[in-house]
Specification:
The chain contains 27 helices and 24 strands.
Length: 914
């Protein structure tokens, strides 16, 4: 096997357990799981955890090193059923989890060494299909039979079996998990089971009351109110108690209830039946009176209808006359006058508006001046016009040459630069060889085309002799070159030509400089010209307005006279309109009155027609009769009697339906119903005898079951309230003063069970006088095939008292700090488990306390004390050691798989302080 380097860690109150054997030697005061050994798992090469020499053990090591893997291994012994196992992350005992513990099918093992009156081991491995196999070894764990002590090689299963048999140790395979489960759990102390259970604990397949609850110690986060409720029921062995309602007795109950309902129905309708018969008679009598009133109404109706018709025709003739006068004479005349009045008004308003505008214009002109002011304005125009002409001349000069200040300045600048360049060129040319080699231009141009610039541009000082003439032969040093006839000469500017260019440029610069001042003021002159033209125009406008004043005054006088004439016409029209309006109002009143009269007659006619329709719709056939009453009185009498008849009919019909419903009759005829009820009244005595016989025949089966279930609940209630709560009150948890579980009974269900229980004591008179509710309750449960489980009888609440303050909490939520919350859940479940096992030092239960770091020091010490006092051996995992534990296993990382054992130096004990 792989070896892990042994590391020693020093704690101020710990001592490494080298003398572990001395501590446990010859110590048989334990009856428990004494060792947990994991060989060749996914993480561990070997983990050998000895449990018998400590009251509380802690595994110490960094995160994700595999501490929880060792503790979760308890699943394989205490749970057995892989589906019920709970591992890290709430995983079940699935294939991947099994392969984590047993990566090989033949060389990976989990061994539990157990001492119960004698030593034996439970070995667990997986097969090739990934299913678990359990073996029993009739001896304590001997490492040499599993691992070769020289080579540290792990033996295969076949080799391990052979080694044990060779040493005369029985090595047997359990045939199935049920056999494993029944071996691990047994009742009483006279056996070697791993867990001694209370004699009342019930087993169901691969689980029992203990294993169902134990899983919550492995994963306490799952503990909520429902889990607590189920755990309490399991602990008190009540989970199987229930009532299953079948339909065996339903027919007899139905027959009894049917007979009883029929008798109650007939008895209950006797009074209504008598009233019903009287109402039928009254309805018939009232119907006869209404038939006579129908005849009287029809007779009077004809007379009244004809009278209304004649009066209506007379009123219609008058109405037409008033309409013609109003709509064909008066109103059109008024409309014509109104239209004319509107036109005159429009003309007057328009003239007044024009008058006001002309007056304003007159005032404005007079504010300018009069005829005496005109000469002054004319003189101003002449002065301004002279100035205008001067400015226009200057502007014309600039515009003709298309110049601006910037253009002129740029031109002068460029001409100046050219002038300087030419002057510089003239100065340079005087000293160049090409210009001094000959005084003849043709000679210079020929030389310029023959020689390069390197020669022609050197100083004239190199000239030894000027060229006076040229010929076809050119002498070069001691040679000669004949020049071709068509040789091209290269033109060259003469100094004289350059001087002429200088003179021309100087003239142009002077001309442009003379134009510059004019151009500089061009924009100002242009703006001033616009301003002068506007002033000339303004003076001219004023002169024109003053000249228009006489004509304006004449126009004002004409409009004033026209306004006066039109206003007089307007006033006359208004008087005539008022006069016609009075006549229209008079005829409108007459017309409205006649319309009202006609409407009244029409309304009366409609009313009596509606009366006739209303009477006809009743369908009452008339009976001949004489009367002197008016139509109104006949109609009033008809309504009064009709109301009575309808009232009789409503009451009669209500009673008819009520009698049908109460008697379950399907008769649609009143006379038939009367005959039916009279016949039923005659058979009551016979049905009463049948009810008494059926009641005696109903079995009291469900009454007994209901009584038993209620009695079991009372026992359960007493145990929780008196015994279990008393145990919780003694547990000290942080600053919580007390814990208490409250049972909240299902009052509705309990009431139903009491009614079912009371059926046996019912007699006929109780049933007859509305005491059948008990049977109806039983019937409801039978019809629906309801099963009442023990858990349906109640719900629970957990109550905390903290510093005098009480509160109810739901375990599905965190109820206190992490540590306190965890401790509350654990101690409650441990208290429940105590009821299921034999609470004895020889029957210690190993359990897993996860996330120990969340529990504060005080609560942790109290929790560990509770475990010791109640014979639990807690194993916990953490990053560093905590007080309260007396044995520690420190787990180190390794290059290969990890080794943990006392021999390897992993075990440490807390020193006792003297």
């Amino acid at each position: 096997m792989e070896s892990s380097t042994s590391k020693s860690a020093t704690f101020h109150i710990l001592t490494v357990g080298g003398n572990a054997k001395k501590r446990s030697a010859n110590n048989k005061n334990y009856q428990m799981i004494t060792k947990l050994i994991l060989l060749n798992s996914d993480i561990y090469s070997k983990a050998d955890i000895e449990l018998k020499d400590a009251d509380a053990i802690q595994l110490i090591g960094p995160n994700n090193i595999g501490k929880s893997t060792l503790i979760y291994a308890l699943n394989f012994l205490f749970i057995v059923d892989g589906k019920r196992m709970i591992f890290s992350g709430q995983r079940s005992g699935d294939k991947s989890t099994i392969h984590h513990y047993f990566p090989t099918h033949n060389k990976s093992f989990l061994i539990f060494e157990i001492f119960k009156n004698r030593y034996y081991c439970i070995l667990i491995k997986r097969n090739v299909d990934g299913d678990l196999e359990y073996y029993k070894i009739e001896n304590e764990y001997k490492e040499a039979l599993f691992i070769n002590q020289d080579s540290q090689r792990l033996y295969s299963l076949q080799e391990i079996e052979s080694n044990h048999i060779t040493n005369q140790i029985d090595f047997n395979k359990f045939k199935d998990k049920r056999e494993v489960f029944n071996f691990i759990y047994k009742s009483g102390k006279s056996n070697n089971a791993a867990v001694w259970l209370d004699s009342n604990v019930k087993t169901d397949g691969l689980s029992n009351n203990f294993s169902k609850i134990y899983k919550y110690l492995i994963y306490s986060k799952d503990i909520d109110n429902t889990v607590l409720k189920d755990s309490l029921i399991i602990a008190d062995k009540k989970e199987k108690e229930k009532i299953v309602f079948t339909k065996q007795s339903q027919n007899e109950i139905n027959r009894l209830l049917n007979f009883n309902n029929e008798i109650k129905a007939i008895r209950s309708v006797e009074k209504d039946f008598s009233i019903f018969k009287e109402l039928v008679n009254q309805y018939k009598a009232t119907n006869t009176i209404l038939a006579k009133l129908v005849y009287n109404f029809n007779d009077k109706y004809k007379i009244v209808f004809n009278d209304i018709h004649e009066k209506t025709q007379e009123k219609e003739i008058l109405k037409k006359q008033y309409y013609v006068e109003l709509n064909e004479n008066l109103k059109p005349k008024k409309d014509t006058l109104l239209q004319k009045k509107g036109s005159v008004k429009t003309i007057v308003e328009r003239d007044k508006e024009d008058f006001d505008k002309l007056e304003e214009k007159k005032t404005a002109i007079l504010s300018i001046g009069d005829s005496k002011t005109i000469p002054f304005f004319q003189q101003s125009i002449e002065n301004l016009d002279t100035k205008r002409k001067q400015i226009e001349t200057k502007i014309s000069q600039i515009e003709t040459q298309d110049l601006s200040k910037q253009i002129i300045e740029n031109k002068v600048k460029k001409q100046t630069e050219n002038l300087e360049n030419i002057k510089e060129k003239i100065d340079n040319y005087k000293n160049l060889l090409i210009h001094q080699i000959s005084k003849y231009k043709k000679a210079k141009e020929l030389i310029n085309s023959i020689f390069s610039d390197n020669l022609t541009s050197i100083s004239k000082d190199y000239i030894e002799k000027e060229i006076e003439q040229i010929s076809e032969i050119m002498q070069i040093f001691d040679g000669a070159i004949k020049l071709p006839d068509n040789i091209k000469t290269k033109p060259i500017e003469s100094i004289e030509e350059l001087k002429e260019s200088v003179e021309q440029l100087q003239k142009e610069i002077k001309a442009n400089n003379d134009l510059l001042p004019i151009a500089e003021k061009f924009e100002n002159n242009k703006e001033e010209l616009i301003k002068i033209k506007k002033e000339i125009s303004d003076y001219q406008s004023k002169i024109d307005e003053i000249n228009s004043l006489p004509n304006l005054i004449k126009e004002i006088d004409i409009i004033s006279k026209r306004i006066k004439t039109n206003q007089q016409e307007f006033d006359e029209l208004e008087k005539e309109i008022i006069k016609i309006g009075g006549k229209i109002k008079e005829f409108d009143g007459k017309y409205s009155d006649i319309i009202g009269d006609i409407k009244g007659l029409n309304d009366k006619r409609k009313e009596i027609i509606d009366w006739k329709i209303e009477i006809e719709e009743t369908g009452i056939i008339e009976i001949e009769n004489e009367t002197s009453s008016s139509l109104n009185n006949i109609y009033a009498d008809f309504n009064r009697f009709l109301k009575d008849r309808n009232s009789f009919k409503t009451d009669k019909d209500i009673l008819f339906e009520r009698l049908k419903n109460k008697t379950n009759s399907v008769e649609a005829n009143e006379e038939k119903l009367i005959e039916y009820i009279e016949s039923e009244l005659a058979t009551i005595n016979k049905k009463e005898k049948s009810i008494k016989d059926l009641l005696r025949s109903i079995s009291s089966l469900y009454s007994a079951q209901a009584k038993s279930l209620l009695s079991s609940y009372d026992e359960f209630y007493s145990w929780v309230v008196n015994q279990f709560n008393s145990k919780l009150r003694k547990i000290k948890i942080s600053d919580i003063d007390s814990l208490k579980i409250e049972l909240i009974q299902n009052d509705t269900l309990k009431k139903d069970l009491n009614k079912i229980m009371e059926i046996q004591g019912l007699d006929y008179n109780q049933i007859l006088f509305d005491q059948t509710d008990n049977l109806n309750v039983l019937k409801k449960y039978l019809e629906n095939g309801i099963t009442i489980n023990f858990s349906d009888l109640f719900d629970i609440k957990l109550h905390l008292e903290n510093k005098g303050k009480k509160k109810a909490v739901d375990l599905k939520n965190q109820i206190e700090s992490d540590g306190t919350d965890k401790m509350i859940r654990l101690v409650i479940i441990m208290a429940i488990i105590n009821k299921l096992t034999i609470n004895d030092k020889e029957n210690k239960i190993v359990l897993f306390i996860d996330e120990l770091g969340t529990i504060d020091d005080e609560n942790r010490i109290e929790l560990l004390k509770f475990c010791k006092d109640n014979n639990f051996l807690p194993i916990s995992a953490a990053l560093h050691p905590y007080d309260g534990f007396d044995k520690y296993y420190k787990i180190f990382r390794s290059q290969g798989k990890i080794i943990v054992s006392a021999k390897n130096g992993n075990a440490m004990y807390r020193r006792k302080i003297k």
